[in-house]
Amino acid sequence: MSLSEATAGNGALPLVVDSVEKRFGDLVAVAGVSLELRVGECLGLLGPNGAGKSTLIRSIVGRVKPDAGTIAVLGTPAESAAAREALGWVPQELAIYPRLSCRENLQAFGRYHGITGAKLEDAVVWGLKWASLEDRGNELVRNLSGGMKRRLNMAAGLLHHPKVVLMDEPTVGVDPQSRNHIFDMIGELRQEGAALVYTTHHMEEAERLCDRIAIIDHGKVIAQGSKEELIKSTFGDRTQALARFAGGTEKVTAWVAGQGGRWLDLEAEFTLEHPSEIAKLLESATEEGLALEDLALHRPNLESVFLNLTGRELRD
Amino acid sequence: MLAIIRTSLLSLRRDRPALALSFLVPIAFFTIFAVIFGGRKDTTPRINVIVVDEDQSQASQALLKGLAAEGSLRVKMHSDAKKGEQLADYTAATAEAAVKDGDVSTALIVPKGFGADPVSFGPADPSRPKIQMLSDSSDPIAPQMLAGLLQKTAFTSLAPSMAEKGWDSLEASAGGFTPEQRSRVQQSLEAMRKHQNDPNAQAGSGRGGQSGGGMMIAVDSRTITGETKDKPILSFYAAAVGVMFLLFTSTGAAGALLEEAESGTLDRVLSTRITMTRLLTGKLTYNLLLAFTQLTLMFVWAWLVFQVDLPHHLAGFVVMGLSTAFAVASFGMMLASFCHTRAQLASVSTLLVLMMSSIGGSMFPRYLMPAGMQKAGLFTINAWAIDGFQKVFWYDQPVTELWPQVGVLLAIGVVLFVVARRFARRWEAV
């Protein structure tokens, strides 16, 4: 089924991004990205800072006009009023009013989404509860902790119960406890049936939350699929070994390169067709006179996939 | 210590708003004040005066000629001709109406019979025709200057009459210098000295009434506007200061738009049902209501504490208040959408508001300024707003007479809002 066919009719996918391009002067922010978001799915956009994730999200919510390509939300163009109704956006910035209370903020954003009267009050109550801020409703935003602000920031974008939710790095700058709280909120949303696009540069978040992951680098989707699919397509059944050596790094790095491995600052990474290959590797290291300090075998993860595909670490 | 100085200088060099406030604003202000007060040798502004010659005698013509030649006066004999009409001479009634409407601050009416006995020495004959000087007390300087200039002109323009009168006076009072005559001369001199030392006898002094007994030309000075108002300058300053602070408040309130843009809130709002036009209209309405409330509080305070008569001018106040609030709110929106940061807005608005306020009459009355500067003031919101409030509170004009000021303020508001909308396109989808 082509992307355009997917958007047609009542059974339209929540979100279809088709060959979207966006340039800012000479900078290519998004270079022909195509994506699909399926009903009830959480799609992760994983990539380093500056990869084009936020530009893509801003294109979907209509804040950036693509130079080429189309975006459809539940079968309607992204810039249409129907698409705006269906979308809920949680921006990376704390886009709330610092001098208003939590309740006043939610009331304001509810009204901006066209909610009024009793429905608005219900939405505000839901928002405060969802964000676990029931007892902070009258607190001014500027007096809240960073984690609380993040949660309110999320609630402000979702009061109208959108079918398609876009979350742009919602855990930036929060402590682990608040991050877990946010993950619980996302879990609740998913239980309610919302389809989510979740951008992050944290591999663990993508692994934990997302059904499928699109890896973005330099404005392009370089791979997409489930975590298992990505690892399988990149590494097959191969295993990875991480080894740390004592002594000078010059001799070690030369040996690592000779064995087809990769030097990662303090340790060497080897991709093995079979775990038994580790014995040969150890033998070679001993012959070379290298002092092994630590050795670990592990299945490749998303970080390994990203490194393998781009030659860079995710946080470079 | 040098390191601290160097760091501070580097910081200042990169803080353009602070640089502008430190160097540009003082220079701009110095320039404005220099133009107003120091741009000419004669620092006294010319006074517009209407002169009505009911006498048409040789003496009255000579006096008028002398007044017209006086550099400090701008004498008007005819009302401005409308298209297709001929110039019409002012009459006593139209001259009085012009002063009441605030077209000029003073008028002189030379009565019939003036030429028969134009000057006198010593105590004046109460039956002698007196020149009527009509004045608007909102400009306390003009009548004082005019009274002095009138007497000065009499010296230069009515010299033959003065000599004749002096001879007659001498002959009439000395008459052969008999003891009796000597006594009469002494009495006459005593009377003149008495009048000279009497401050109430000075022409043009006080708030109107009889004057000129001891002067050569008898003048009846009469205040015809604001005669029942105790503090003539108060309604002016309520409007003048009010408008200036409205401009500051409005730019500050509109600056919230920049804060929202910087925090990302504006982006989020524009991703909802709210369009840019609706957003700006909402902000404009809020700023308008804020400005009108501020103005209302100011005038209520002026009414309660300084007896500015608000209750009897309510309709005019509301019309002028809303028009002014609309213009200043649009001004704030335009600046906020033009500037890129809050700091930039602060420096640009400070510069513009202070310039507009000084040229537009919020800091000192425009009638004190040179003619060119008075015309330049017409490019400011302040001037139109102050003129409108003066019409309401000082000249007691009905609401229908406010159309020029209201029209200009509304036009300014519409134009600035359209410009603001255009600047705001940068916040729309890129």
What does this structure look like?
The complex is a heterodimer of chains A (316) and B (430). With 316 residues, chain A is an alpha/beta fold. Chain A has two domains: 3-231, P-loop containing nucleotide triphosphate hydrolases (Rossmann fold, 3-Layer(aba) Sandwich); 239-299, 2-Layer Sandwich (Alpha-Beta Plaits). Chain A contains twelve helices and 14 strands. Chain A has a six-stranded mixed sheet, sandwiched between helices. A four-stranded antiparallel sheet of chain A has the order 2-1-4-5. A four-stranded antiparallel sheet of chain A has the order 12-13-11-14, with helices on one face. In chain A, a hairpin with a 2-residue loop joins strand 4 (68-73) and strand 5. In chain A, helix 4 (102-112) crosses helix 5 (117-130) and helix 4 packs parallel to helix 6 (146-158). Mean pLDDT of chain A is 88; it is low at 1-9. By secondary structure, chain B is α/β, with parallel strands linked by helices. Chain B folds into two domains: 47-225, abc type-2 transporter like fold; 230-427, no CATH class. Chain B is 60% helix and 8% strand. Chain B contains 16 helices and eight strands. Chain B has helices spanning 2-14, 16-38, 58-69, 92-100, 141-157, 159-174, 179-197, 234-254, 256-263, 265-270, 276-306, 314-338, 342-360, 371-377, 381-393, 403-423, and strands at 47-53, 73-76, 78-79, 88-89, 106-110, 131-136, 208-210, 219-225. Chain B has a six-stranded mixed sheet with strand order 2-1-5-6-8-7, with helices on both faces. In chain B, strands 3-4 form a two-stranded antiparallel ribbon. In chain B, strand 3 (78-79) and strand 4 form a beta hairpin. Chain B is elongated, with a radius of gyration of 29 Å. Chain B starts with a helix and ends in a 7-residue tail after the last helix. The model of chain B is unreliable at 201-214 (pLDDT under 50). At the A-B interface, loops of A face helix 10 of B.
